[in-house]
Amino acid sequence: MEQLLNDFLLSKAWYFIAARGLTAIVILMSIAAYAVLLERKASAWIQGRVGPNRTNHPLIAWIPFVGTFLQKGGFIQPAADGLKFLFKEDPLPGHVRKTTYILAPIVALAPALLALVMLPFGRLPTGEVITLCPGADIGVLFMFAISSLGVYGIALAGWSANSKYPFLGAVRGSAQLISYELAMGLSVLTVFLATATADQDNALSLVSMVDAQKGVWNIFYHPIAALVFLICIFAEANRHPFDMPESETDLVGGFHTEYGSFKFGLFFVAEYSHMIIGSSLFIVMFLGGWHFVPGMPVLGSGLFAALFGVAWFFFKLCAFLFFFVWVRWTIPRFRYDQVMRIGWRVLLPVAVLNLIAYFLWYAIKG
Amino acid sequence: MAIKVVERRPLSLAERTYLPQILAGLKVTWDNMLRPPVTLQYPEERPTIPNGYRGVPTLVRDPNGREKCVSCQLCEFVCPPKAIRITPGEIAPTASNAHVEKAPQEFEINMLRCIYCGLCQEVCPEEAIWLQSQYSMTGTNREMMVNNKAKLYELGGTLPDSHYKWDRKKAEAERQSESGH
Predict the structure, then answer these.
(1) Nearest CA to CA, how far is A149 from chain B (Å)?
(2) What are the tens digits of pLDDT across the range A265-318?
(3) Which of A28, A98, A306, A334 is 20 to 30 A distant from A354 in Cα terms?
(4) CATH code, B119
């Protein structure tokens, strides 16, 4: 049993790699689906409503208590939503550029799934790290590089739709990504400056980043970097208050105005996947990854500690997704010029000054 | 004209970062999240209809079971969207209320046209047509959305009457004929 678990987590045989990949996609897709449910439920609670509580299947409704609970909690709603997207008519508007129009949702979703392979979830008792692609040392670079590619999906969608609102949405999305990527990179650099040591050859690995937070989490050492990074992941994931590419109120639906049915569903999942990646990065870099609480990295021992670490990581992830949703239903959207001003004239200088301050501090300290 | 100069205080650094305001906003939404929902679970829970609610127009009977409408057609005339159609009829001379002379033979209100303005109720000299508490009219085809006379009386039922106008008229007429006038 333990051998099989070890193989499943660490083996380099192609079937274990495929199994890991499938598991990751299934888990990511279901988290994305249930993040949509969380979004609908939390928005309902904030607005004094009840949220989805009707969807059910006769077979499930037949189970006493559990069936009612699942229905009231809306837990079957994501399945209904997914099926709706799947079985709707898939129209292809006459005025679009067909190849890129079909390509865009794929280009939006693929990087979001791909970025996940470098994410470390936990650590086995033997010391190996639980991740999809064990042994790679460039974690953070890869994740930033790949997850930023997602904007190509938005740009392609806006361009191929061949109408003005999607085009405006795509332009805004691209401009926003470029503006916030800089501040994001600088804030991350500050943290790596602190955690990496000179003789380390895997200084940019997310695993060593988590290991450096065994005692105190990075958010306490680098509050400003954490704040800048937090704002930037909101912007990178195109979430409120930075949902420039969509802006329903002024751009109809933004980049996905011309999309329907399953293609729109793919954009939807991609947006939530970006939320998941952003949250995971924040947790790994600032909130101690799979460590339990500051000052007490492990709870229990052996295999239990490892599995609890993974579960705790997912708990943090869910809490962070809830934070995303909570912020969305609290703050109105910034205007486009305000987004640009915050990005270039506030976040970038703050991130640069923060970096210089830490440089000086380490230079003086030696 | 007096000009009142409003002091525009420059924003403090904390205000310009937006952060305290955002935290205050998060507090507001958090408090809201803990409050019970105000939504009514509609088909299971029904709203309480206040008095004087103007729902679907209906025809009513008086407590003696007599239909109050005398088919004067004022409502048909006043109805802005022309939703009402009345076919007037005579009351049989042998009936106990023969002195009322007229009653509708057919009375139709097309609920696809009705705008619930209540002018029919306002104009009715007999207080025979009332907009009552029925608020949900549904049907699967156009014919089902036209209320005929039977349906209108079924919806309307009986309302209390403080006048008994036609009973008093009948009694008066009988008294006068007895005294020979």
Answers:
(1) 30
(2) 888 888 888 888 889 889 888 888 788 877 777 777 777 778 888 888 889 999
(3) A334
(4) 3.30.70.3270
- CA B76, distance to chain mean position in Å, is 16
Q: Which residues of A166-178 are buried (b: 16+ CB within 10 A; e: fewer)?
A: bbbbbbbbbbbbe
User: Could you tell me the strand order of the sheet in which B146-147 lies?
Assistant: B84-90, B102-110, B146-147
Q: For B108, left (φ over 0), alpha (ψ -120 to 50), or beta?
A: beta
**Is A327 in Cβ contact with B33 (below 8 Å)?**
no
How far is B29 from chain A, CA to nearest CA, in Å? 6
pLDDT in tens, A204-253: 777 777 777 777 888 888 888 899 999 988 888 888 788 877 777 777 77
Q: Angle B20-B25-B30 (CA atoms, 0-180°, nearest 5)? A: 125
Residue B150, domain extent: 57-157
What number is the average pLDDT over the span A84-88? 87
Residue B14 lies in a domain: no
- Say if A32 falls within a structural domain: no
* Residue A49 domain-assigned (yes or no): no
CB contact under 8 Å between A326 and B26, yes or no, is yes
Domain containing A305: what range? 89-365
Residue to test with chain B: of A50, A53, A227, A323, most B Cβ within 10 A: A50
pLDDT at A264 over 80: yes
ipTM above 0.85, yes or no: no
Question: Per DSSP, what are the bridge partners of residue B88?
Answer: B104
The number of residues making up chain A comes to 366
Q: How many domains does chain A have?
A: 1
Distance from CA of A43 to the nearest CA of B (A): 9
Q: What residue of A is the nearest CA neighbor of B29?
A: A46
B107 occurs within a structural domain: yes
pTM, two decimal places: 0.81
Q: Which residue of A has its CA nearest to B16?
A: A346
pLDDT computed for residue A212 by the predictor: 76
- Residue A174 in domain: yes
- A361 found inside a domain: yes
pLDDT of residue A200: 66
The whole-number average pLDDT for the span A116-136 is 74
Residues of B in contact with A48 (CB under 8 A): 32, 35, 37-39
